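Reviewer 2 asked us to include a model.

Predict the structure of this chain.
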Amino acid sequence: MKADSSINPEASREPNSSDTHFDGSNFDFSQKGVYCLIFENHECALQVGKKGEFSFKRGYHIYVGSALGPGGLKRMQRHIRLSRDKDKNPKWHVDYLHFCSAFRLVSAVCAATPERLECLLAGAIGGPCVPGFGCTDCKCRSHLFSREKYPLSDLSGAFEGLGLRPFVLEF
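Predicted model (structure tokens):
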């Protein structure tokens, strides 16, 4: 299901209920939580601030983030708007992906939780990764993972494995 790069009620759904669609207003984005951004990309090299240049293979990249601050999961909405509007300077490593023409945000998955589960979710997703990306405030190897195929079912399983109920937005 495709939609434009805004939160579209027809594009939000729970991954285990593919025939049931939810109005995005039913999800409270002010809650604290954890999220993943799924990007589809072409092969490229990208300068990421002071971290240096990273090479990316064609496929999909999954960024794992937390939203435990006062705005909660509105942080994820910031990423969605930034990917669409490209109207702010990069603040986090993942922001550079939003500005790169080789990357396109295709989905976001989130779950409400007051617990600090970002690193556990990154570990549950695992697999090929971009070492040192998005994990400067923890001891994880990475918070950016790659897949050759669309990874939504992998992410749904990772969220559910941590006892979280994923909420999906597709663009």
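Residues 74-85 form the longest helix (12 residues). Confidence is low (pLDDT under 50) at residues 1-23. We have added this to the supplementary material.
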